[in-house]
Every structure is written in structure tokens, then in C-alpha cells.
Amino acid sequence: MFQLKDSTILKMHKFPNLKKPSHLLATLFGVGKLPYGPGTWGSLATLIIWYFCDEAIQKNILFLLIVIIFSIVVCYIATKDIEEKDHKSIVIDEFAGMWLALFMIPDISAAGLTFLLFRMFDIFKPFPISYVDNNMKNGFGVVLDDLIAGLLAGLLTIVLYTFL
After folding, report:
1. How many angstroms separate the first and last alpha carbons of the chain?
2. What average pLDDT values come out for the chain (164 residues) when binned by 10 residues?
């Protein structure tokens, strides 16, 4: 901290500090610090992890719920002391949203399409994703917009695979 001339105290936060467990987890062990689209890197990391997991984990609803709850808790803890709640290096929310999308797909061959659709929804943020992103500035909101993107990506993948 340092004192400004008008007696305002300015806290200097270096985010993320990968020595803090919550920051390390929020960035998926530093993946969120990669340049040029950390959300895409986080989603790609999720796709790779998901691909190498056993189908019993890929389709396990309890595991999905644990991922979602854990992501919300990590985002809450990691962001409680920073002004910008959905910092670009936080990618555990992409992990939760992408895992939800992949959980829904009918076949592993749909994973690439699901990844592209998830990124499209996460980047362009159509309603209601944009509403959540703009109005819920807390750990839950940081994850919720990605869960909605994941839900939409998963549903659209199912529709495309069913009717095309």
C-alpha cells in the first residue's frame, strides 16, 4: 500500500499470485496466464483433461457437481480482494462450463464442435450470458455465465448431431 496526496489509500493487488492456492487453482495452475485468449487456453486444457479421463468420470454427475461447486468456491476466494471479479486469467470457470458442455454430448466425436460452440458462446455472450456477466459480480456469477455457455453449447451440439 502507498498513500496518495489526497489521503486515499490504494491497495496494490498483483493478480494472480500463483503462490496463493486460490489463485493457482483459479488459473488452472497457470494456464490462465498464457497470452492471447486465456479463456480459450483454459477451455482447451479442459478438453484435453476430459479426453484422457475415463468415461466413468466424463459422464459422472457427482463429479460434475463437485467441479461446479469447487469452481464457485475457488472464484469466490480468489476474487474477494480484487476489483475486477472476472479477471481474464481466471479460467476455472471455463473448466466448469466446458466440462458441463462435454458432459452433455452424445459421443466423443462431438467434442471438437462442443469446444468451438462453447468458445463462441463464451466470447460473444448472447443473452442471458451477457446479463449474468454484467450483473453478477461475485464468485457465483463468474462461474454461472460459463455454465450457461456450457449448457447452450451442449444443447446445440446435441441438436446438430441429432438433426444433421
Report:
1. 58
2. 39 71 93 94 97 95 98 93 79 98 94 98 96 92 97 97 88
Are 157 and 107 within 8 A, CB to CB?
no
Q: Tally the residues of the chain.
A: 164
* Contact of 157 with 117, CB cutoff 8 Å: yes
Q: Which three cell numbers stand for residue 3?
A: 498513500
Summary count for the chain: helices (H), strands (E): 8, 2
* Per-state percent for the chain, helix, strand, coil, to nearest 5: 65, 0, 30
Q: Is 89 left (phi over 0), alpha (psi -120 to 50) or beta?
A: alpha
How far is 108 from 111, CA to CA, in rounded Å? Answer: 5
Q: What is the chain's alpha carbon radius of gyration, rounded to the nearest angstrom?
A: 17
